[in-house]
Design brief:
Elements lengths: L7 E6 L2 H5 L2 H14 L6 E6 L11 E4 L3 E3 L4 H13 L18 H29 L3
Parallel strand pairs: 1-2
Antiparallel strand pairs: 1-3, 3-4
Helix pairs in contact: 2-3
The structure holds FE2/S2 (inorganic) cluster.
FE2/S2 (inorganic) cluster binds next to helix 1.
Amino acid sequence: MGESTDIRCVAVCHASKCRRRGAEDLAAQLDKEIMAHGLEGTVATRRGRCNGLCSRGPTMAVRPEGCVYARLNAEAIRRIVREHLAGGRPVRALIPKGKDSAPSEKKAKKQLKAARKAEKQARKAAKKAKKDSLPG
Ligand code: FES
């Protein structure tokens, strides 16, 4: 493939069933945990679509690995950030059977491209904000 995989894309499902089970709060907690671990430059978060595990929601997908975590709660988010996003080891206990295989090549590339674009936009916005704050 030849592409760098040092930016992960993490998407908490925001479809209706996961939202009803607290996906919004978990996504906010995820952002805080990512900041607390200093991972904001290597992990991009976004609102995700249904992962097909609605009865086991809230769910969250991590790319490019292709892991889908289910039955998320505050402790699960802390553990995933600490062990997977910071430590590099997926938390198998939180991945439903059959949901830890790699996504299709095309899908993985698309996810990675979206993550890089989000990162580039964030850097550009930070640069602009810094420039605007300078006197003169
Ligand atoms: S609604 Fe979240 S996995 Fe389907």
